[in-house]
Design a protein that fits this description.
It is built from seven helices and no strands. The chain is mostly helical. Helix 3 runs antiparallel to helix 7 and helix 4 runs antiparallel to helix 5. The longest helix has about 35 residues.
């Protein structure tokens, strides 16, 4: 009878990290859909419900980036996973991108609910120059959403590879 070589098991923290990257990928995909389908309608109609949906998607994506960052760092620290370290560094970059876009997200939500004085404190009185200045951060956000999708695909492939029997 031939000797069968067992494939090493995926360690628990690394498995948890891969699952969190999968969840972040789903959140990223849904947030991207929200941005492309609702943002123009929010600007045109000023819908509070759509604005809250976009803001909730933003917050959920930001939270998932932080969760993935922590889980990746934990997988590296306790299980010496170099891929988790690399991905957690990328999730740190995504969290910074989310922080860069925080002013715009806050101004969007406050302006939808009629708190113009708070919006003016956040973005200033020259709103057109603020909107023009947000071009680069929102391009970075879209690139970050794409990056989160790619990392989620790799996490899914890794889970699939170790799950096969």
């Amino acid at each position: 009878m031939p000797v069968r070589i067992k494939r090493p098991e995926l360690k628990p923290r690394e498995k948890s990290f891969c699952v969190s990257t999968l969840v972040c990928m789903v959140v990223s995909f849904l947030f991207t859909l929200e941005l492309f389908t609702m943002m123009n309608k929010v600007v045109d109609t000023g819908s509070k419900v759509m604005t809250c949906g976009i803001f909730a998607g933003y917050l959920l994506f930001f939270a998932m980036c932080i969760v993935c960052l922590c889980k990746g760092a934990s997988a590296y620290k306790y299980e010496d996973s170099m891929s988790a370290l690399g991905k957690s560094i990328l999730y740190a970059v995504l969290a910074v991108i989310c922080l860069i876009n925080l002013r715009f997200a806050l101004s969007l939500i406050f302006s939808a609910f009629g708190a113009e004085d708070i919006t003016n404190k956040i973005i200033g009185t020259d709103q057109s120059s603020f909107i023009k200045a947000q071009y680069t951060p929102w391009k970075a956000m879209l690139a970050g959403l794409l990056l989160a999708d790619v990392m989620g695909i790799f996490g899914t492939l890794k889970l699939n590879k170790y799950h096969k029997k």
